[in-house]
Amino acid sequence: MFIRYAFRQECWHPNLHHATLIIDDPLLRKDYGFLNYEGLLALMDKYDFHTSIAFIPFNYRRNSPGITRMFRERPDRLSICFHGNDHTAAEFASRNAGLLNGMLTVAEERMDVHEKKTRIHCDHVMVFPQGNFSRDAMAALKAHNFSAAVNSDPCPRGENSGFSLLEFIEPAVLKYGEFPLFLRKYPREIELQDIAFNLFFGKPVLIVEHHEIFKDPESLIQLVSRINAFAPEIRWSNVQTAVENSYLRRWTPNGDLQIRAYANAGKVANASENLLRCYVEWPGCREVPVERVLLDGVPWPDARTDDKGIRFCFDLRPGESRRFSVVYQNNFGLSDANCRVQWKVKAFLRRRLSEVRDNYLSKNPHVLSGAKALQRRLFKRSNW
Ligand SMILES: [Zn+2]
Fold first, then answer.
1. What's the pTM?
2. Separation CA 104–CA 108 (nearest Å)
């Protein structure tokens, strides 16, 4: 803190502070378990927060028109992002690059159909089902030009390699596939010092919950109120906006702006009355090759790529804002193992059983514990 105070302009500073509540799994129907969308919207309007539904692409044809209309009409409060593809227990913990590529291809195709039908954009951010992922999944997401991944656990399945101080304080973890992993926590795990830590180091405040929280949302409301009282400038937004704005910035002695980006895109504005030169860098591009760098969607010719990352610069006129982004090549093979009948049957059964659990059994704790034991026995052997 002292160093940042003493070298105010020359130190890296967070860009904008963002927060998002992420609810895993629900379909977009009137009710899902204890979640009722009208009730949630009323809570968000009253207490001022935003919810992103971590949406399972498998469910792309199974939503209610009334609720998709609500999402369309209230993008300030409601959004969706990717939550796996079929939401099998560990689909993105696979080390098979072809299979990962195949699952992401299907997931994107499903959500393209969903977007055409509902006109709801699905944020290109992956929330891993049950927190399971592999290094290979991070590289595959990068090759599919996802903005970032979000998870509670910072380590891939089966790894616990520890973190250096620098890795710990950066806005996102970059050590797996050089793809940004933003971390989220449950309300019960978030203290005031966690919020302060995130804001100081430019990490978005990402909160994870499931439908059960709405049985008694008091702890969630208390957390939202604490965040808004502590950081009144914080912007509640969809998760893509949150990760894209979580870049670092600093000023050079001659007045140029340097940006260290984590997500694959971001936006910068020039609020001054002078021409502003911006230098943008993305750390790391060894594992997945760069195809091109874009400025407002147009290829930018002078980007430099080497072992340390990608760098390019451009000028902003007074009052102007521009969006920068990077596009990666996808050279992975493609497996269709996830399109075979046996896989599809298991995915279908798993989703239906999970919905019965969330919609009916969760309201009866005794029956729920028996059903969970049965589900474990049914799916344990094949790791589903
Ligand atoms: Zn889930």
1. 0.91
2. 6
